Structure formats: C-alpha cells, structure tokens
Model the fold of this input.
Amino acid sequence: MKQGIGEILVRLRKESGITQAALREGVCAASELAKIENNQKNPDPFLLDRLFRRLGKSAVRLEYVLSAELYHLYELQYEIQVQICRREYDLTEKLIFEYENEKKGKGKIHRQFIAQSRAQIAWLQEKESGVVLKYIEEAIMQTVDFKNLWEKGKVLSAEEIRLFLFRWEVLKKAESKEKATLAELWKIVEYIEHRQFEPEELAKVYPYAVLLLNEYGDGSELKTYCIAALEKALELLREEGKILYLPEVLEACAEIYAKNERHEDHKKAGELLRMRDALVHLELEYGMHFENYRLFSDINRRFKLDYEMIRQNRLACGITMEELCDGICTWEELSRIERGKCKPNDKTFEKLMEKMNRKRGRIEAYITTADYEMILLEAEMEKALHRFQYEKAEGILKDLSKRLESNYLENCQYLETEKVRIEISRQHLTFVDGIQSLISILEKTGYAKEIFTYNLTANEKNILTLIACLYQKWNRKEQAVQILEKLLINYEASSCNPVFMIREWGLVLGNLAGLLEELGDISRPIELCRKRLKTALSAGQGRTLGRSVTIIACVLERKEKDFVEFYDALRLLKLMKMDYRFNCVVDYIKKNGYVEFDAEAV
Done:
C-alpha cells in the first residue's frame, strides 16, 4: 500500500477513540505497534488481521503477498475448519499437531486458534463440559485479560467476543458450579451493540448472541427485543452473504411468524423454512456440517505467494536470474526465493518487483488510498454490481472518482474499467467500443499481448473478465471462452488454494460455466459449478450459491426435461437477495412453458 498500512491503522484507531495500549493488549508489544503505525515495519499478517478486527474493521479488502511459511499457516487453519465441518476428527487432530509444530505458529494468536479448535471438537464430540471449558479458557487467556471485561475502553475483536459467548453457552448447558447468568449474556450483547463493528465483522458474532438470548431469555420485554434482533440478524447475514448461523436464524424467525394469526405471516414462515431447507440440503450434499460449529470463521480473502510472483513475472519479462538479482541480492539467494525456500525481506521483494515494472508492496488494497472509507466504498461497489444494481453502483463510482487520487495507475485502471461497465449497462457504449476501451486500459501496464504469462494483478483479472463478458454479449462466445480458460489456467497454476482468491476465481468459474452451458455443453458446466459450490461452502460464503445451482439446473433440465432443481436455485437466490437473477430464472421457466411450476412453492 503506497501510503503504508500504518497510516490507516492510526487514523482508524484515533477515529474510534482507542488507545495504543487497548489495541495491542495481549497481542503485541508497545514498541512493535509503534513501529507498525509509523510505517517502520510491515506487520505480521495474522497480527494485522487481529488489529483490524479489534478496530471493528475487516482486512478482507486487503491483498497479502505471503511467504510459503506464512501461507501454510493460513492453509492449515482452513483445512482444520473444513475437517471439523466434515466431522473428520482424527484427521483434524493430525492437522492441529502439524500446526503446533510449525516454526511460525508459536505466537499467542496461533495458540489461541489451536485451543479454540480443540474446544470446538470436544463440544461436538459431547465431551465433559470441564474439558471444553479448559480449552475455551486457554484460548481466551492467550490474548484477553478477564479483568474489567465489557467495560468502556476494553477492545476485543468479534472472534474474541465469540469465545466468551461459546463459554457462556457451555456453562449454561453444563451442571457446573459456575453459572451462566442472563445478566452476563446481556453485558456481552450490550458490548457488541456499543462497539462500531462494520457489517462483515458484526455478522461473525451478533447472530450468535441473539440466538442465545432467544433460546435462554425469558419475559415479554426480552422476547420483544429478540423478535427485532432476530430480524436484524437475518438481514445482516443475507446482506453479507454468510451462511454460519443462517439456518438457525431462519428457523427462529419462522417460529415467530408462525405464532401470528395473519395469513401473510404464516406464508412468510413457510418461505423462510423453504429457504432454510434449500441451504441445509446443499450443505449436507457437500458434506459440510455447520450446525453447532460456533467458532467457524468464514474466508473472504485475497492472497498471493511472493516466490510465485517473482518467478512468474521474471519469466514473463524474459529476464535471467542474473539480470534480476544484479544490485539487489545474490544469485543463490534469488534461487532460494523463487523455490519458496526463503522469504525475501520487504525491501528486497519491492526492489525485485519494481525492476520487472510490477511495483507493489506486501500489503495493498484493490485501490490505493490512505482512507479506509474508500476501501469500504469499493466493497459496496462490488456488492452492487454483483446484484446488478447499476444505478447504485454509478452513484458510488462518482463518489470514488472525486475522492481517489488519480496519479496511481491502479486507481486509474479501476475507475476507467468500472466506468466502461456502467456505460455498457446504460447502453451508452457498444460492446465493440467497450472491448476496445478495456484493451486500452489494460495496455497502460505495457504488455497486453503477453498478459496471460504474467502473475496478474486483481485489476488486470477484473478487466479481462469484463472483456470476456462483453464478447459473450456480442455473441462472440468462443472468444469469451478462450479468455476465461486462460484466466482459469493462470489461477490454477498457483499453489495458493482458490479459496484464498475466492471472489475473482469464483467469478471466472461461474462465468465460464454459464457460457459453456449456453453453448450446449452438458458435463463441464456441472463440474465447474460443483467445484465452485464446494469451495464457497467451505469458506462459509453464500452469495454465489444460487447461480451455481441455477446453471446445474439448466443443464439437468436440458438432459432430463425436468425443472424441479430450479426450486432450490430460486430459494437460494431469494435468500441472498439476488433479485435480478431470481427474476431471470422465473422468466426462463415461464418461457419454457412449464405450466406445473408453482411460484408459491419457492
């Protein structure tokens, strides 16, 4: 990030009225945080994640360039979560043991993850509450002091708060000397509501807290609060596209509506339960058991591997190792770096990338800014485009255009690309002109013809994906397929699991599957969609599920002349508020003359 991540941290901390001491408590030394905030040191990525989350913010819009060692820890965390979801406890324990023995996995944040994973397994295996509590408290004490909990000035992340909610639930269900009181649960809920968590972070903890209140609370006043809180939790999960806690919240809301006498409320209850059943059916089909998995952390990240970036870009540039390392490092050192055997320090990494005209740092956002609000606006822009809300997207783009610095190449590329997208949607630009404009934007990096040989930036992938989309709309579908296939090869050449580039990789996979289905392929679209579904579910992400199920339904309808599969597709689209795609599917069913289709059953 050109201005340095420290500037953003300082600004966010001061805007929130949080002291350095409160922010760093239990996770790092005062001197380390001072160096990070002064841009004298790039933070460890796990520490940066925690600092952002304690500020109530999310690091998902940041792209990390990781060493092989650090990436392996993120991958192990992911694999541990997946195997817990699959209830493969023996394999999970082997992965935890591997994690424990990693050289970089010895810090407090890592020990916390290990302890909470063991607590979760013990809970799912229905072991004695004392065993579960031992692990939970071990996890909590890694980064949190039990003194003065829930008081003003105490700064905890959503994940840390969730540990206390889990502890409360275990105590409540156990015959323990220490009782879990409703007053204590209220303190946690009040703390959550007092803190200004952005929605991405709030979705990790608020629904869980509300579900506990709804289950164990008593009294008419509390029940009134729970009705409003459950509706808020449901809206939050749908808006953010998260699936953890979603079936439970849907069921709880449905129970409330079912108790009312109004026909509309009974109808609403049935709709919510059908959406719940569609989601649970899909989870079970792919072997993902989220029920009672209280501490699952969804994944919505963008990672790259330093050694891959250096080697792939060097080969694409046609530079020898001797030429690249000259004046920067030794040939032997570069050889070890490119094989992932050693991590280049930040200065060496930046010099190597700059020499190849691919200048970048270890931590960057999609756009270059020191204003976190701009990063949030970019996220809102992506969400609006995903839902085909072009008018809303256009308003956000105007705001970004006024406030983003245009002297950075990545900002220019981003703004110009999204302008083309909006103008195409408004029919102010032909497909041919749109493609030519995008190629010109791509050429600003100077090597559009050989672009697929490089380790592509997020902006370059976005431009290429949009070019393929325009070729498809222009009925040049074979050209669109070629671009998407090359993009997919570029992604899959990486050792980085697709789950850590899920937004861009998933979009390419979905577009390619949809395009191949249009061309009459009856096998590959299903293969691609199942791959995307498996990855999205393992990441806890629900926003794209409906589209994948829709494409599979289209293929099966062509093969078997049956529209039954469309019901679950429609329910999932409605659940995730994909109104445009929902209406497209309904129109498709009506166009094909399925008179037996019952819209009331969706």
